[in-house]
Amino acid sequence: MILNPVLDEIMGEQSFSYIAKAKAIEREKGIRVISFGVGQPDFDTPSHIKEAAKRALDEGFTGYTETPGILELRQAIADYLNERYGAGVGPDNIMVTTGGKTALFLAIAATVKRGSEVIIPEPSYYAYAQVAKIFGAKPVYVPLRWSRERGFEIDLDPILEKITPNTTAIILNNPSNPTGALFSKEQVRRLYDEAASRGIAVVADEVYDNFVYDGEFYSVTSIDGWMENAVLAHSFSKTFAMTGWRLGFVAADRRVVDKLFSLAVSIYSCATSFAQKAGVAALKGDWEPVRRMIAEFNERRKLMYDLLNKVPGFEPNMPGGAFYMFPRVRKALDMLGMDVVEFVETLLAEKGVLILPGSSFPDKTGRDFVRISYASSREDIIEGMNRLREFVEERAR
Length: 397
Ligand SMILES: Cc1ncc(COP(=O)(O)O)c(C=O)c1O
Fold this sequence. Notes:
The chain has 14 helices and 14 strands.
């Protein structure tokens, strides 16, 4: 049989393959691997959310739902976006999806065409480019600007230089995975305005909108008339520690949501019925567990930053959002004579510490960086960062 050649162009999510490698090392060597590889909160889903799902199951709410999602959930999502950001949306602007990834899939599907170009500021979450390729569009990477003091920032000029008549979309992931960057209101606004003035869509991935520590998060949905030129992809996964529930959403102009209906129904029919009820409880219920989790992440962020500063050749900056450190490690790599993949794999094999090579986050900038998630206990952060420091010190001799 003939297989679709596009499948060969698609890159997988490397955090998943490194987790498999870490498990193999635990089995072979009998050591406990401390993992900073995974992009999910180490917290359980708050109990009132689980209760809502259990109730839905007990009440027999187990069939298909409407494809865009149950009205109660779409209303709750609209209320969230309106109350937080003044988004001016109603239930008809919402398409509930099976997680943030499906939301991205739909958002990118809506804004590209065969032969078009999608600008992706990099280092970037890997999935954007894959979806673009699936639809025959070309990912065009543009580096973010990095400095030790300010971390990663949007550099507008090189983005504008890469715009061609074929450009149909620009990705804006804020706060950002893998860098943890929180882009300023000014940067977001200017990027949106430049895109909008050229009729280019902004695909805004705001799945970390609650993971904000320093400064203020500025949502694309705060911009007047944002739906004319932007599509929002969002998720319950991170905020409510619901990664396994697979619940997310797209928010967009009604015209876009209506057009996405046939694609969504052809892929997944609807999001899981009882997960949708849980989503209502998440948005409308007690936010205290979320606040506690974010406060804990903030403490870990500071702890990890201090510890990373003690690792020779590591240049961390203090990221304002998400739950990742993305230190520059070029000096350490040069001292050790390794590239970033060799560094990460040797560290895992010898010290049982899993971090991800920045090269997993296309395109090129990541070769000088590593991603370290601080969604791990403080004890593990202390132990893991000690092992990392020892590794660099021993090898650098
Ligand atoms: C930036 C970003 N967007 C989207 C997703 C996907 O979210 P979900 O797990 O809800 O599919 C992730 C998950 O890691 C992410 O980091």
